[in-house]
Amino acid sequence: MEIKTFGVIGAGQMGNGIAQVAAVSGLDVIMNDINEEFLSRGLNTITKILSRNVEKGKMSAEEKDAVLRRIRISVDIKDMAVADFVVEAATENESLKFGIFKDLDGICEPHVILSTNTSSIPIGRIAAQTKRPEKLIGMHFMNPVPVMKLVEVIRGIATSEETFKATWDLSLKFGKTPAEANDFPGFIANRILMPMINEAVYCLYHSVGTKEDIDTVMKLGMNHPMGPLALADLIGLDTCLAIMETLHDGFKDSKYRPCPLLRKYVEVGWLGRKTGRGFYEYQ
Ligand code: CAA
Is residue 14 in contact with ligand 1, taking CB distance under 6 Å? Predict the structure, then answer.
């Protein structure tokens, strides 16, 4: 089945990035969210990034306009009825995602693959909300989506080979490099990344070093593009905490216990770049 129209649920940080790469790859995109404000914010971000690409000579102004014309916005999830493939990139909240997948299952054609960009919720648990578990799969993009090459493609226990192959091929069409993971808490990316970030927060909590020194050690000593605390601010501290909770609950292993300092920051609303303050302060 050819994929021509690509549906994205969520116009936030991940959703608008996914909509952008899909539209750049030539697909018609429907970007859905719960209100016009979120959608226009998402569309503004895409426009800004594409305009920067035009200024840098990476894209012509005509191409930019054509990409933007391919993105339709929607506040009604029923618009997903015309989508050939859907990725859900809503807030990382289990009951919210379950509701979305129940709706999508009733709205989309039976052959349509429903994928989720979840960073931590088991694919099997989401699949169980639908009558098409063989068409459920994880399509996990990294932030910032237009820049990061990876898509982690996660098979649920019921995911069919056909669904896996279609998702893999779509990731390639988006210019990404897919990697395959199975459905265990945190999959591969966050099983490795989050304990590292959590340990960096413990280093701060135990005063092993300042935030700047912790980040400098990892940047200059390990050649990471940014330090773990700055990266946590980029990802969102609430997301980092939610993923650590998933690892901790899923494995019942104390090595995954979230650092109390991470919890404190989240409780007070210091969630990172999106709220203007996390480990660092932002304009
Ligand atoms: N959107 C689009 N493009 C962006 C961008 C954004 N938000 N941020 C940066 N860029 C582009 C810049 O325009 C620039 O493009 P050109 O090369 O064409 O000029 C390029 O990326 C490099 O940016 P900068 O020069 O401004 O800065 P940098 O070299 O420090 O790169 C970075 C910024 C790409 C964010 C880099 O620091 C990096 O790779 N950091 C690590 C990111 C990472 O680990 N992401 C994964 C997070 S985990 C996750 O997402 C999954 C999860 O489930 C939690």
Answer: no
Ligand 1, pocket-test mutation among 16, 48, 56, 147, most atoms within 8 A of CB: 147
Kindly report the protein residue whose alpha carbon is nearest to atom 49 of ligand 1. 142
pLDDT band at 4 (very low <50, low <70, confident <90, very high): very high
Confidence label for 222 from pLDDT (cuts 50, 70 and 90):
very high
Helix (H) or strand (E) holding 64, with range, is helix 61-69
Look up the CATH number of domain 5-182: 3.40.50.720
Domain 190-275 belongs to what architecture? Orthogonal Bundle (1.10)
**Which residues, 6+ apart, have CB-to-CB distance to 8 below 8 Å?**
15, 18, 19, 22, 29, 30, 31, 32, 86, 87, 89
* pLDDT exceeds 80 at position 110: yes
Confidence (pTM): 0.95
Q: What is the mean pLDDT of residues 63-73?
A: 98
| CA–centroid distance, residue 198 to ligand 1 (Å) | 21
Q: Which atom of ligand 1 is nearest to the CA of 56?
A: 18
**For range 7-11, the mean pLDDT:** 98
Q: Is the CB of 150 under 6 A from ligand 1?
A: no
State in Å: Cα 160 to ligand 1 middle.
33
What are the residue boundaries of the structural domains of the chain, listed by start? 5-182, 190-275
Structure tokens at 246: 């998933």
